[in-house]
Amino acid sequence: AERLLVQSEKLNFAQGMAATVAHEIRNPLTVISGFTQMMQQDKDSPHAYFYGLIDEEIKRIDLIINEFLILAREKTDTEKEVFDVQEILRAMLLFFKPNMHANEIDLESHLNDQPAVIHGYPNKLRQVFINIFKNALEAIGTNGNIIVSSSIIEEQSVQLVISDSGCGMSKETVEKMFEPFFTTKDQGNGIGMMVTYDIIQEHKGKIHVTSEPDFGTTITITLPLAQQNEV
Ligand code: ADP
Ligand code: MG
């Protein structure tokens, strides 16, 4: 429990910092960008070409800042809703199906017939599944399988289990995977899992990971079902 506390403090700090940094950088950047665009318009200037380059680099910084803002996103930007979380999961499976098919990844899904109604943010949970499936696809590459299942536990919570037959993780990697900016990928950013952790926390849920190098990874998410007074 202490470990988790440290992690969520780190997360809050990272989010606060990200928001401040993003806004502080964006203002002078807008000014710089305005001037370089102005100077670019002077076609006779021998430096016009370089101003173009500067502007492209500014756009790159702006993209990075956007990523920061995603991570710093306000905690409650929308109203909570009451919905079946399995519907979101089903929709996301449909969304990834073509990609799985193209990479020869078999999908097995054992979703509950009973609805799993929760009180929360559908868009954020959509993001959770996107992050998890993206990682699963990246871990598998081509040829493998993903198994998704759901079950209701003691009429209190819903348990969602997502397994992939991908590259798996060492114990050390599992321990670090939710840390801000932790990545083992060349093109990774280490944001997906920290955001996922944050969103599950926000829903008063739990996320648990088991993994074995070369065999695959299983992610278990437990979310409390909506209470009678929330429905
Ligand atoms: P990114 O995908 O940008 O690296 P994430 O926050 O999504 O960042 O994941 C952090 C790290 O956790 C990954 O770099 C990878 O090492 C590990 N990881 C997450 N999910 C999986 C998975 N399904 N299989 C193997 N490794 C994973
Ligand atoms: Mg990822």
TrEMBL record:
It comes from the Bacteria. Residues 20-227 form the Histidine kinase domain. This is histidine kinase. It comes from Kurthia gibsonii. The chain holds residues 300 to 530 of 530 of the full protein.
